[in-house]
Request: fold
Amino acid sequence: MSDARRQGAAEPTREDARVAPKPALRRFHQARWDEKLIFELSTPGQRGIEVPAPEPEVAAAVGDVAAALPDALRRGTPPALPELGQQQVLRHYLRLSQENLGADLNVDVGQGTCTMKYSPKVNDSFVRDPRVAEAHPLQDASTVQGLLEIMYRLEGLLREVSGMDRVSLQPAAGSSAIWTNVAMIRAYFAARGEAEQRDTVITSSFSHPSNAACAKTAGYRVITLPPDADGYPDIEALRAAAGPRTAALLITNPEDTGIYNPRIEEFVRLVHEAGGLCAYDQANANGILGITRAREAGFDLCHFNLHKTFSTPHACGGPAAGACGVTEELAPYLPRPTVEFDGERYRLEHDRPDSVGSVRPFYGVVPNLVRAYAWIMSLGAEGLREAAEVAVLNNNYLLSRIREIPGVSVPYAQSRPRVEQVRYSWERLHADTGVHSEEIGLRAADFGTHYWTSHHPYTVPEPMTLEPTESYSRADLDEYAAILAEVAREAYEDPDVVRTAPHRSTVHRAREDTLESAATWAVTWRAYRRKVLGEDGA
Amino acid sequence: MIRVGLVVNPVAGLGGRVGLQGSDGEAVQQRARELGARPRAGTRARAALSELAARGADVELLAAPGVLGARWAAGAGWPHRVVPVAPSSETGSAECADSAVLRPGSPRLGVVPPARRAPGSGVGTRAPDAGHVHDAGRPGAPRTTAADTVAAVRALRDAGVRLLLFAGGDGTARDVYDALGGDTELTVLGIPTGVKMHSAVFSVNPRAAGEVAAVYGREEGGVPTRRAEVMDRDEAALRQGRVTARLYGWLPVPFVPARLQQRKTGGTVLSPDAVGGIAREVREAAQRLPGAGSRGPLLVLGPGTTTQALAAALGAEVGPTGVSALVPGGGTAEVVARNAGGDALLDLVRAGRPALVALSPVGGQGFLLGRGNQQLGPEVIRAAGGAARVLVVCTESKLAALGGRPLLVDSGDDALDAELTGYRPVITGRGALTMYRVTI
Reply:
């Protein structure tokens, strides 16, 4: 309502017609299309492309093509695919894309531990080049020398970044890379006849849970180190845990709290003294590029997520890319094939008898290797270090802004700066207002952004994890902090608004409990028909 | 729409602010009043109800009469019915009551309209403090006793409530337990207003109780429940300078762990697989004991829902209270003792089977020994083989809920306590341990 109207003026005036100034905070509103599932949009007989029937003479010359297929390869019934025209398909997916809050749409600093930096679009143009996009994995090496050179040179760059002797680019993503490291650790001890004795892997509460999960998948017993009073992994617990059964320490530094563990060399030494190996989870190395290296801290293995630190897209659980670095002692166990160079030609080396085998078909996710290579080459060594420094600067700037918000605290190690991310706590705000961290995150969605809390269990109560990376400007960070400040103000003054958020999203709230049980979750059309629509036999 | 009941112990917490460490018993309450104590149970109950109202829960609120419930409900902007309660013989008829009290058997139910919400008295803002409510704690004002709580709880149960909110402390939780019995199906939730909070039946704060009740109402009782410990300090011992807590039993509480989880990866807050994994670890540890092959190992389980679930996963049915002993086999386990006393346990452990003792922290305080399981005395632990034969079991989320506080032992034997302290592996799941600090 304009001031004129509020003052009781009956007729619209020129003042009313004036365009209102933009509000300080954007009032984002997400699209809501109530779009059906694509299967529900299906109309029998509709096609995207009508393929013309072959000419009679062609048909006669070819004969019954289907008859050439072995019986075992033939379907008994046609696949139950939706039948739609091209326009309907395009419209469907464009609508779904609008009901999303992707990394290129929002100030995506709230997905802490994920390093949501900008993925430069120019790097996609290299991937779309036919020499990458149309290469076949079974092509002879002589025809893909350029791609092999990129992979060889990328390995060299990552060796330099990590200090390790060899790097495999084959893992499909971060967890795949951790799994590869664990597989190499297992193979190393098997070769030494210690596989049975060394049945335990040590990790920490604030390291990524994939470390414990991969170790368990490989059959290891896992000991977790809880944080000490300062938030560092408890070194006394490590002393109690390390021993003749220890195969390895899998640890992150800085951990999810963003606090760099200055005693990391001591951790490594304790495990080495017990006869174990040390693997550095560098999924996110964004705050330490060009500043510290796994090798100097004494690690035997490390891994990077190219889709975090090295800017390739996250792909929402789709193919990302991981890289494993190892010392010379562990190099025989690297996945095969490796890319080798004899001074003239690049070739794929499959003859690696001690290798843990392939962890991904062929050579890994090559498009992401190309993107990561392009990103590193565009920055150079100095640029990488500058990226890390700006990421740390951004993080500590955002930290100073968030500290101004009532109800937020920054647990642990009060006097120390944070590296690339911070795990905050809304515990005080919750005690004052009853509003939960999750609810604050949902309310932030009404302003066009969001955040993630933390892994479970919540060791930090009412957690929030922010990681601004080097990509965001000061104005971006100010906007993000202003949104959180506004939501915190609402929590204190009108908590209903926050508790019942989001108000401007595609769906109000998902019933998370339906995702808890296999009896209710439906991730396929067939499961949806059976579990949600209640159709028997679907 | 489900029926939610409210009972308030108006004198709960009376002693806390004046340093009496409790409010049980008329003498303590009188002393608290003399020291200027003001009760806060009612205002905290009202905060819980305000939260319930703000969350738009579709519930029918039934309240015990007067200061036992209705008075606080009336101030929360929430319509409620008053359920008649027979006055206790100890307090006489009128003292705990006010005009809303109806006699037993009365066909009438008083319907009290919601109070008008003042502008700005939104959810979560502290409920306006109506002066008269403090009368409950002033000399000459209404007095209530445990018998009133018990009677009110039973009346609400008989009126068909599906969820009972009670405002009080450990003493009140015991009264609720006494009223309902350990086998009750009625889900309860404590609004924390007392001084002592050893029990695990309370929400983290009053508003959280309203929040959980709203979820419970919205899901029409579809919220799972878990059995939570009712504990209380031994008051007489406390005043002699000894802190001991007793485990009285278990009551079902709504299980609403993280309300609106946002997760990065899959995995539930409390994986139902965790206890099954713990059970397999414990069974294998028992079977590895020297001599276990010939005689079969003895597994002594301390009290608790974790150890009860552990027994169930091993194929044995034991209650959550008391100490039990099993001989685990392949798919089942033979129960050789339930609710065993110290002497019986000692005899069992000395009978020749190699023994393991599995303990879980009890009551949210982190105590492994010496609270709620005194029958597991130092002589039993020593007969089993000492600290090396003690396994600690706990899910990751329960450990995280300790907030970094250490696990505690107070076995009564300093030398044994010393052996048990330091960093010990806590079994949190299949192949999963956390190296955790144990102190005295």
User: Anything to note?
Assistant: The first strand of chain A starts at residue 166 and ends at 168.
